[in-house]
Specification:
Elements lengths: L1 H6 L9 E5 L2 E4 L2 E4 L3 E3 L3 E3 L10 E2 L1 H5 L7 E5 L3 H12 L3 E5 L11 H13 L3 E3 L4 E6 L5 E5 L4 E4 L2 E3 L3 E3 L6 H4 L3 E2 L2 E2 L12 E3 L12 H15 L13 E3 L4 E6 L2 H6 L4 E6 L1 H4 L11 E7 L4 E8 L2 H14 L3 H5 L8 H14 L1
Parallel strand pairs: 4-17, 6-13, 7-8, 7-13, 8-9
Antiparallel strand pairs: 1-2, 2-3, 5-14, 10-11, 11-12, 15-16, 18-19, 19-22, 20-21, 21-22
The protein binds flavin-adenine dinucleotide.
The site of flavin-adenine dinucleotide has 19 residues, from helix 6.
């Protein structure tokens, strides 16, 4: 990135920035004035407020490990937890996952998540649901004991706190300028402006309902650039795909299965167990499956997919959703055969025609 910045004529100043006034950013003793300012300070890992939490590690620590621990306990069963549990079990670590709620990956359909939980369990991971971690104690031999409210104790060598992420809004001088924040981050209008019109916010630090992801941050920054160059249209997000990089992968885009089922007049939900139907293309991945959400106008509005190819396939489905392609338009194209995508497209065309 530093090389790219240099090639584009962008100065990179390393240091902690804060707003001095609506046109000045301070970095250490340096002051930089600017017509427009974009706050893009992202998020950091949350730290569960229990005794012994100084023993906890976050995703950055985990990704910096030189050697895998023999035993690892993950607090929380969200995306980061399940992705890292997948890596750790594959690398031979004994993994325990302790989750406060009664299920993993709450934003995804239960039956889809169950396949991932079952696969991880087969790989040796142990899930503890409805358990709130209350403390962690270091033992003399360098290991730890994690305790929960119900009295569960887990002995471990490494504790990963994967309980969430918090927007970096502190010490930026926001309050003095009247820039509003809430639990989700910096409050912006539909032009991504803060309460101070020449100060924008982009990416994870923005309070928003859409997923906080790299491509949404990029989309927002490109949008802000367009506003600075004269675009007056409010931001309009397209369908946003997201992928859980477990094995198998889980991806979702657009209207969710739950939303569709809650509005049966607006949507039709079609389940396609394509792992059963396309055994050859999916390399015998029999639990691979797909749910399509189809609108009254007979175009695709959403999709959820499980399988090794789910992370790639979701981009094709996103394109179809954003372009509003009909069965007739898809039928007018020829796709390479055989493959997961051609099988899914055939199923999609059939479903759109029903
Ligand atoms: C473990 C993990 C896995 C993820 N996997 C995916 C994935 O598979 N796909 C995906 O799309 N997204 C993923 N994400 C989310 C993705 O990383 C974020 O959505 C994305 O990085 C947001 O970009 P951003 O620029 O808003 O924030 P960031 O990338 O967090 O960048 C913010 C930067 O601002 C710096 N900063 C903060 N405060 C200051 C200050 N006062 N002065 C100067 N600098 C400051 C920070 O140090 C940081 O470098 C993942 C996140 C995590 C933690």
């Amino acid at each position: 990135m530093e090389q790219l910045f240099a090639a584009q004529g962008i100065d990179l100043i390393k240091g902690k920035g804060h707003l001095i006034d609506d046109h000045t950013v301070g970095v250490d003793k340096q002051e930089i004035t600017s017509d427009k300012i974009v706050i893009a300070t992202g998020q950091r890992s949350a730290r569960l407020n229990v005794p012994g939490n100084e023993q906890f590690h976050d995703s950055r620590d985990f990704l910096s490990l030189d050697k895998m621990p023999k035993r690892m306990t993950i607090i929380g069963a969200g995306i980061i937890s399940l992705e890292f549990a997948t890596m750790a079990t594959k690398l031979g670590t004994e993994v325990h996952i302790i989750e406060f709620g009664d299920r993993a990956l709450a934003a995804y359909p239960k039956d889809y998540v169950q396949t991932i939980v079952d696969t991880l369990t087969e790989e040796g991971a142990v899930f503890h649901f409805n358990e709130a971690v209350t403390q962690a104690t270091a033992l003399d031999d360098g290991s730890y004991v994690v305790k929960t409210d119900s009295g569960l104790t887990v002995e471990t060598d490494y504790i990963l706190d994967a309980t969430g992420r918090i927007a970096n809004t502190e010490d930026l001088g926001l309050e003095a300028l009247g820039i509003e924040t809430d639990r989700g981050g910096i409050v912006v209008n539909d032009h991504l402006q803060t309460a101070v019109p020449n100060i924008f916010a982009s990416g994870d630090v923005v309070s928003k309902k859409i997923p906080k992801l790299t491509p949404t941050a990029t989309f927002e920054s490109n949008y802000i650039a367009s506003v600075i160059l004269g675009n007056s249209d409010p931001i309009q997000y397209p369908a946003i795909p997201n992928v859980v990089f477990t094995m198998p992968r889980l991806s979702q885009v657009g209207v969710t299965n739950d939303e569709a089922k809650a509005h049966p007049d607006d949507y039709r939900v079609v389940d396609i167990p394509f792992g059963q139907q396309l055994k050859f293309q999916t390399k015998l991945e029999e639990n691979a499956k797909l749910t399509l959400v189809i609108g009254r106008d007979k175009t695709l509005k959403g999709a959820t997919m499980l399988g090794g190819e789910a992370g790639e396939m979701v981009n094709l489905l996103t394109l179809i959703i954003n372009q509003g392609l009909s069965a007739k338009e898809l039928n007018a194209m020829i796709f390479a055969f055989p493959g997961v995508s051609s099988g899914v497209l055939t199923s999609l065309i059939q479903a759109l025609n029903e």
